[in-house]
Amino acid sequence: MTDSDISSTRLSIERARNEAKDYGKASAVLAVVALVPITIVQAFALLGLTVTGWLFLFQGSTAISISLAGVARRRFQIAVVVVVPLLMSLYFLEDATAISPQSAVGHMVSPWSLLPIAVIACASWITADQLDRDHPFRGFLVACSILFIICYMGHNGIHSEHDDYTDSSYTSIDKEAAAQAAESGRYLGQYLVYVVVSYAAMLTSYQGRTRT
């Protein structure tokens, strides 16, 4: 490794650490603000906390990965990309009182359910070209987070629709559909399937690129 490479690595570590500290401090402040008994303040604080918390995780894990090497780095990255989506998936278990294998994944065997899976696989395959050679886990973290947001919206009955008459889009919330989805654990299975498909496509594409 040349002196310039070493300097660049040190700068990368320093930047990741500094950003992780900044986002950690911001998260702590927002967590305190979220305790204020005013609904609108709590809503914005929790929204900000979600963003800063994720960025803290992203930059913090990046700093740790950079500081490691060889097998230790590989094991750490694998642990992160496995544990993070599993922890995220626990959200969909909160109100799952009637969950079963059929209710969780049975609905995904229809042609309409296979279409988004194909889209996710293609998108993941294409975007794998942007993965960092030494720290590819960062792309996997982004993927599982985007898929969580998609499933979160479905889990809470949030739908975006287009009005042809006014040529505009609007967002609606179907509370009944949300309650049924939460009870059956529908989006727990859907989220995990999406993550597995995305990871498989990205990993296959990444390995093919690194072998050339």
Describe the structure.
With 212 residues, the protein is mainly alpha-helical. The chain has two domains: 1-67; 81-212, no CATH class. The protein has eight helices and two strands. Strands 1-2 form a two-stranded antiparallel ribbon. α1 (3-33) runs antiparallel to α2 (39-67), α3 (70-89) packs parallel to α6 (137-155) and α5 (111-127) runs parallel beside α8. The chain starts with a helix and ends with a helix.
Question: What's a concise summary of this model?
Answer:
The chain is mainly alpha-helical. The chain has helices spanning 3-33, 39-67, 70-89, 101-105, 111-127, 137-155, 175-184, 186-211; strands spanning 158-163, 168-173. It has a two-stranded antiparallel sheet with strand order 1-2.
Keywords:
globular; 212 residues; 6% strand; mainly alpha; disordered N terminus; two-stranded antiparallel sheet; 74% helix
Number of helices: 8
Question: What is the global morphology?
Answer: globular
Structural class: mainly alpha
Provide the domain count. Answer: 2
Mean pLDDT: 84
- Specify Rg, calculated over alpha carbons: 20 Å
Q: Which regions have little confidence, pLDDT < 50, spanning 5+ residues?
A: 1-11
**SSE arrangement, N to C:** HHHHHHEEHH
Helix coverage percent: over 70%
Strand content bin: 5-15%
The counted number of beta strands is 2
